[in-house]
Amino acid sequence: MTVVLFEDEQVQQLYPVTVGRPAFSISCGGYTLLELIEEEGWPRREYTRPHVRAYREAAGLAPAVDGPPALPVLLVNAALVPSTAAVARLRALRAAGQPLLVPAASSSAAGVRAEAVQGRAPAGRQGSRRRVAAALLPAGAGLPPAAARLSEFASWLASLPLETLSEPLPLLEYPHDIVRWHLAIFAENLAHRLKAARFVQQSDGVFVAPGAMLGPYVVADTRGGPVVLDERAQIGPYCYLRGPLYVGPDSRVTEHAAIKDGVALGHTTKIGGEIEGSIVESYTNKQHHGFLGHSYLGSWINLGAGTCTSDLKNTYGQVNMEYQGVRVATGMQFIGCIMGDYAKTAINTSIFTGKTVGVCSMLYGFVTTNVPSFVNYARSFGQVTEAPVDVMVATQARMFARRQVEQRPCDIQLLHDMYELTRHERQIAGEPLSL
């Protein structure tokens, strides 16, 4: 069997998270969809946006395509929520052995409402075409060329004679869905991860992989879920850990930190202060004091000392978020910020509830509005200016060198691609201050 991971036309609704990464590489519930697919040992192919495809091929991340795919062919939406339950449904779809289509769960089922913001055009959508979560193709269906546009792939898929199942599968539709689904599936996904032989229970509810270390005077509260340290993860002294918690390989939690209630840390992160109910992708630093709550941080981010996010409105009401001209009712009471790859904050930066921060942006002072990509955001000081891509290339080189990571031409090209893809965002950087 061959699994084909495909991005559809609504992948842009996940910006800024998916500006430079495919949707199947989003961490949610302690896993990416790609990791779960690879665990199954299924050969795969990828249908992604051109700049993502070019980067992954140049970086050796995309599988080599040689000849027709092995049958049967299972299509999987790259935005599928990466839960062990969803993968079990994919196994069942494969076992059914007949052409079937699994629709995506409607966002209305989660109580989500979206409306255009006054004076702004809403983000592009697929119109009346219903999203597909997965499909088992009939024999002889073939596949479009790998370079096919997302709209062409969707039209081809809609033309196939497939019986539609009545039970849908959930997709990540908006960025806040990453945090919402993370909290819903984390416990089950963590239990699945603990089946790996590398984990040994060091004490009640605390599981460690080879090379992981707990410093002295660490308090681990596992009544709400396990504390899981992957290979070579290090916890400094006097830390408070409350599960469910996953600390990825080669990550370090500094002394006196409080990490609790559903935190998942990617590999090679450096974490301090207080974090609650959040996802931190690989190579990101939040080393110093400050609060991060119910948020998503992409890769290669650095939060300056004292940076804090608000994850609760003063009214205790549900949070509305704005994406590309669309105001969305999240149905969530707690949601902090969604921060794209390579963003940075200065010391004592304060980010208001439910804000998005674009890729490669530098933040200073109070962040009271969404932040476009590639900007120096100091709105509380009366300044929002563009961050040139050449500056970000030089910054990337310095960051990579600190982590003994080679900066390749494809890494530089991806920054240039992200800059061009987000050029339209910087046209709105001069909007009036809006609380």
Please describe what this structure looks like.
20% of the residues lie in helices and 25% in strands. The protein is an alpha/beta fold and 435 residues long. It folds into 2 domains: 172 residues; 253 residues, Hexapeptide repeat proteins (UDP N-Acetylglucosamine Acyltransferase, domain 1, 3 Solenoid), CATH 2.160.10.10. It has a 9-stranded mixed β-sheet with strand order 8-9-12-15-18-21-24-29-32. A 6-stranded mixed β-sheet has the order 2-1-3-6-4-7, with helices on one face. Strand 27 and strand 28 form a beta hairpin. Helix 2 packs antiparallel against helix 7. The chain is globular, with a radius of gyration of 21 Å. The N and C termini lie far apart (51 Å).
Short description:
By secondary structure, this protein is an alpha/beta fold. The protein is built from 7 helices and 36 strands.
| Count of distinct structural domains | 2
Would you tell me which CATH topology of the largest domain applies? Answer: UDP N-Acetylglucosamine Acyltransferase, domain 1
Number of helices: 7
CATH architecture label name of the largest domain: 3 Solenoid
Which residue ranges are poorly predicted, with pLDDT under 50 across at least 5 consecutive positions?
Answer: 118-128
- Rg: 21 Å
Within CATH, the superfamily of the largest domain carries the name Hexapeptide repeat proteins
Helix content: 10-25%
* CA-based shape: globular
Tell me the name of the CATH class of the largest domain.
Answer: Mainly Beta
| Average pLDDT score | 91
The spatial strand order of the largest sheet comes to 8-9-12-15-18-21-24-29-32
